Every structure is written in structure tokens, then in C-alpha cells.
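Progress note, project year one: complex with manganese (II) ion.
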Amino acid sequence: MIDKTTIAAANEADEARLRADYDALAEQLDRRGIDIAAVKDKVAGYGIAVPSWGVGTGGTRFARFPGQGEPASIFDKLDDCGVIHQLTGATPRVSLHIPWDDAAPADLTAKAEELGLGFDAMNSNTFSDAAGQAHSYKFGSLSHTDAATRAQAVEHNLYCMELGQKIGSKALTIWVGDGSNFPGQVNMTKQFERYLDSARAIYGKLPEDWRLFTEHKIFEPAFYSTVVQDWGTNYLIAKELGERAFCLVDLGHHAPTVNIEMIVARLIQFGKLGGFHFNDSKYGDDDLDTGSVDPYRLFLVFNELVNAADTPGFDPAHMLDQSHNVTDPIESLMNSAMEVQRAYAQALIVDRAALAGYQDENDALMASETLKRAFRTDVTPILQMARFEKGCAVDPLVTYRTAGYRAQVAEARPVSAGGGGGIV
Ligand code: LRH
Ligand code: MN
Ligand code: MN
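Model obtained:
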């Protein structure tokens, strides 16, 4: 963790500037009938999970260029996640991927407790083969033509739930790479039926207080067809399985022109939005930093979430899922968590009564301007004040660099191998 005095010293140097900026924004928002303290409290109470796999440097199938002091185990990864939460106060939980993060539950909970972290959804991996497993997932997992391979994939998901129960997780996220690479390679109907059978077997063992999230993705690793390719198929799965099955929307898993905020609205309307994997993209599942390419789209997603906030039982899971190939993953994850908070704050200050009026009058331009007005407002002082009051860093990036955490861990951690392709 980072020395508390480093955080306090950086905050103190910035306090007068922060108070002046916050007061100026408070005055501006007050004129718009918005109470800044109420927005700040909501932002302060907001949390997003970080993916354990995000703190290691990612790569492409062409190459991976490791950074310094990369985490060598799940416990190193948790240390890095602890720093992210210590500085931002926005990432109280970690989402684990099994078998990548498999470890003794007591050790996981002890480490998490030491760092003030909890565990979010468990993620099962049946898209690659683990050492020594009996049946290969080369031609699929939950939808494989071979019953023994499907049974092995189901069993792995049950194991993820067992482990998750011991560490306080309350959800399982399933994403499979199953699909095909050639027209004619699979019978699409039979393949989906096999997927559904396997998913039913997993859902049947879902603990009472758990939710099951299924995640769709348009393509990759299968390049001709994918069994859970879009939100329509995902909705069918959630509907078939039952009331504790929901759809997970990973922002990067859609074709570039798809209207994701509208998918979000539809899933909310029919009670099947389970949660998010936030990231950004330009071409496909690029796993770029959240808000780095299209912050307006992120805001539009949050606009739908805030709009639905009063829906009974509405509680989607929020997680980041991105890959950091050229940056320090801790910096990227801190920045992304803050970008999500920013989108949330901007959505909170939308004048919803005015928007509804313009919608009723079919005043397209003023409706759009109402959203833009909120989006254009620089809510940074709200985010900073929320962190300041929690004893987190007003400026996490600057404080992180000043603290020299990466150089310190580089001394203790082994040098990580680069070279060939990485998967995330
Ligand atoms: C697939 C995905 C899914 C996996 C993660 C590693 O592209 O988004 O969520 O679990 O990446
Ligand atoms: Mn994902
Ligand atoms: Mn993805």
C-alpha cells in the first residue's frame, strides 16, 4: 500500500485550489437547481469492481511487452488492486478469473481483508485449456459436441461457484469462446441447444443468493459464428434459465456502430440487465481504457442507468474489463474507474424534467442539448472532493507516481516474460 503521509501531503498542497473549484461548481449547479452535495454523496458511494486480470500487462496475439514489476501471483494482483482502491476510493471489489486466480479461499480472504477489498463476480474460463485437463476446449466448451467435454466445462463452473461462496462472491459470469470458424462447421441450432442444456445444469446449482450473468460477444476467438453472439441470444438465455439469470453487457463486444445505450434500455425494461464490463473500443473488442475513445457513449449508458435508478430491484453489477498493453495497468485502471464515476456524475446532473418535456414536445434539438449540457459540465471537483473527504488521493495519478510504487514492487517481483502473444 502507499504511505498515508504521501497522500496527505499531496492533498494538502492541493486543498485550497480544490475548495475554490468545488465552491465555484457548487454555485453554478445551484443556479441550475442542483445540490452539489447530493451528487457528491452518490459519487462517493459508488463502487466499481476491477478485474484481477487487468493489473498484469496485456498483449495481442502478435506480442506482449511486459512492464516493470508485474504481479506474479493473485496475491501480487490483489496488492495492486489495493493500491487502486486506496488512491481512488472507487474500486472496493475485485473480480476473479478461475483458474488464473485459483488459490486457497482462506488465503484469498485474508489478503483481501488486509487490503480492505471484497470479491465481486467470479469468472469461469472454459475458453482455454488448463494444464492437465482431460478434454480440450479447442472446439468449444459448454456447447461442445462431446458430452464429456461439456460435463467438464459445467463442472468447472460449479467449482467457481464453490470457491466464490467461500470468499463472499455473489455472482458467476460465464463467457465462452464457443462458435465456429467456417460456414457449415457447426449446426447452429444444435450448438445453441447444447449450450442451453449446460447452462441449465449450472443454473440449477446456483446458490440461492447468487445471480448468474452470461456475457455476449460478437466474435473472437471464433471468427465465423459465436454461440452467444449478441444481446438477443443473451436475452433468450436469461429468459430460458430463470429469474436469477441476467445479461452482462461488455461494451467492447458489439459491432462498432451498435447503439449500446439502447440495448441497455431494453434489458432494463425487461428486467434482464445483470451488469457491465466497462472498457472502450474503436474497432472490436479492443479492451481500451474506459472513456478513452468515446466518453459520450459512456455517459449515454449512465444516462439510462440513472433514468432507471428507482426501478425496484434494479442493481446491475459494475466491473471494468480492459487490457493494458502500453500503460501501467494501475494508472489505467485508476483513470478508468474515475471516468466511470465522471459519467455517473454527469448523468446525475441531467435536467430530467426538462428532458421529458422536450421529448413530449418532439423538440429533438433541445432534448439533445439537455444531455450535452450535463455532459459538458466539468464535474472533476465533485470527484476530487469525494476522494478528499475519504482520505483518498485528490489526484490519484500524480500521487501514485510520486509514491514510486511501481519501482518498489519491481525490486521484489520477478521480471516477467515478454515475447509471443498474450490473450488479454
Ligand atoms: C472476453 C472477455 C470476457 C473474459 C475476459 C477475459 O473477451 O471480455 O469477459 O472473461 O474478456
Ligand atoms: Mn468481458
Ligand atoms: Mn472482451
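The chain has a mean pLDDT of 97.
The chain is about 50% helix and 10% strand.
No further modelling is planned for this target in the current period.
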